[in-house]
Structure prediction request, 394 residues.
Amino acid sequence: MSQPTPGCPAPVEEIHWPSLIAAVSAISAVGIAIGLGLPLLSSIMENRGISSTLIGLNSAMAGVASMVAASFTTKFAHRHGVAPTMLWAVLLAAISAFGFYYITNFWLWFPLRVVFHGAITVLFILSEFWINATAPPAKRGFVLGIYGTVLSLGFLSGPLLFSILGSEGVLPFVVGAGVILLAAVPIFLARDESPVIDEKPDRHFMRYIFLVPTATAAVFIFGAVESGGLSLFTVYGTRSGFTESQAALLLTVMGIGNFIFQIPLGMLSDQIKDKRTLLTAMTVIGLIGALCLPMLVESWFLMAIILLFWGGCVSGLYTVGLSHLGSRLQGSDLAAANAAFVFSYAVGTVAGPQVIGASMDVAGNNGFAWAIAGFFGLYVALSVVRIVLNPKRS
Prediction:
């Protein structure tokens, strides 16, 4: 385990609310911006007659931007400070959000996507680092549960805002940019309390993927299952005989599970020394749930119950994985590992829909469940191997 970095504050035992509010505000902006921006931009491109292939290609730039931003965020924050870097990211994200309204040339939306989602990723990485670095070790899971709950609420609020605002005119862009800019207020007020990255990490951020593989693999699975599930579940549901509204409601139930289980799972992780066991247990539940899906398609109610708990387990991979990361590393190592964490999530969001979609093409409708079970099964195998080879390592 890394030693505390010189200049980093010693761990505290109580939650420091200004820091928590600053980090949570940043992640709220991330959640709402993504939740509002993705359907908004897709609808506008559809209305302009852009082909589905090009819409998908443009949307995929979000994952590419996240991977690029993850490579330099820690170094930039080391040089300029965590809070100033976050404030610049807020400004860039807000300006580029307006850019989508004023720039009508479709091909310019590709670099614009890179700027927007790159800035959002910087907020993602540094808010996670901030909250992980300042959370009391004994309450880290609880604090990260709050963080994850707010992120989930942001993802849920974005589509709701879109349904109210629509895609016409400048108003949805004003609201989106305004939400992002509001996050700057608590960040600015708590700027003197932001963690300091005094030293450059000893390793390139990519090496942290393999330094804490149980955490980075967990968020990869989370990204793959969440993005693939959200993208293709309505297709799976309607092909299984549910109406479009019934399938959408099942997806909402899964989102509710994602939302309500974050804090309880975070608190549970605080009571468990080796968080790998909890991560493994959640993936086993996810594996069983995925395998049960084809057997439950005749009952909407049973499917809803499974998806409620399944959604909680999927979201728990993010919260507990992040807590595991914070318990293993500190200082500049933690900042670089957070970049690797977000990078792994981005790779998962790109891989998930591709693998699940291809599986449905090859194996039929049940390929949806088999592909998701495959993701969970890979993690269970990795986790068991890690626990067997390193039984005393947390």
